[in-house]
Amino acid sequence: MARNFYPAPLQKVIRGLSRWPGIGEKTATRLALYLLRAADTEVTELAQALIDLKAKIRLCSRCFAFADQELCPICADPGRNNGQLVVVADPGDLIALERVGFFQGAYHVLGGLISPLDNVGPRDLHISELLSRLHSEAIEEVILALNPSLEGEATTAYLAQELQGKPVKVTRIAYGLPMGGDLKYADQQTIKESLRHRVRA
């Protein structure tokens, strides 16, 4: 792509967009040219939305999902069954489960998976906060919904050991999910069945 033929401001936008996941230089160029032709109001609204995204989105103080207030909408919903708690690796996995519309309990987002190769250990995740919730909330079942990868399996095994002896039922989602798969990209029926047929961890 002969990017040098573009004016500097356009090159800067193309470079910025091409750093985003799944967007190569060709797609970035196409998007940048679209923005150049778009109405000023559309571009301004998008720019403001991106600024608000960084300024206003934070992590829920209870479950560590995305929120724009202290509690996310799920934690603030009095209609949820807080006796069941699904543990996921990141907010994207939570969103995938919510899209199915099957689970009506609470969540806890770890913020990643145990990965020695990436220098991520248990202390780098929200595991201590999970254990604290078991003492402060009336949780009856913890459902481990982590990706079936080496890191996911290691984290599941660690959590199962940490939760052993606690007065809660510990289960894990069933394997309709392929080994090495990613929960957030699974289809809704697969996620629903993996929750329905969960097994003891």
UniProtKB/TrEMBL annotation:
PROSITE patterns found in the cross-reference section: RECR (PS01300), TOPRIM (PS50880)
SUPFAM superfamilies per the UniProt record, alphabetical: Recombination protein RecR
Gene3D superfamilies per UniProt: 3.30.60.80, 3.40.1360.10, 6.10.250.240, RecR Domain 1
Residue ranges crossing the lipid bilayer per the database entry: none
Presence of the UniProt keyword DNA damage in the record: yes
Signal sequence range: none
InterPro entries linked to this entry: DNA_Rcmb_RecR, Rcmb_RecR, Rcmb_RecR_Znf, TOPRIM_dom, TOPRIM_RecR
BP GO annotations: DNA recombination; DNA repair
Pfam family, one: RecR_C
Residue span, Toprim domain: 83-178
GO molecular function, one term: zinc ion binding
Alphabetic keyword roster: DNA damage, DNA recombination, DNA repair, Metal-binding, Zinc, Zinc-finger
Zinc finger extent (C4-type): 60-75
Family named by the database record: Belongs to the RecR family.
Role noted for this protein: May play a role in DNA repair. It seems to be involved in an RecBC-independent recombinational process of DNA repair. It may act with RecF and RecO.
PANTHER family: RECOMBINATION PROTEIN RECR
The protein's name: Recombination protein RecR
Organism, as annotated: Desulfobacca acetoxidans (strain ATCC 700848 / DSM 11109 / ASRB2)
Gene name as annotated: recR
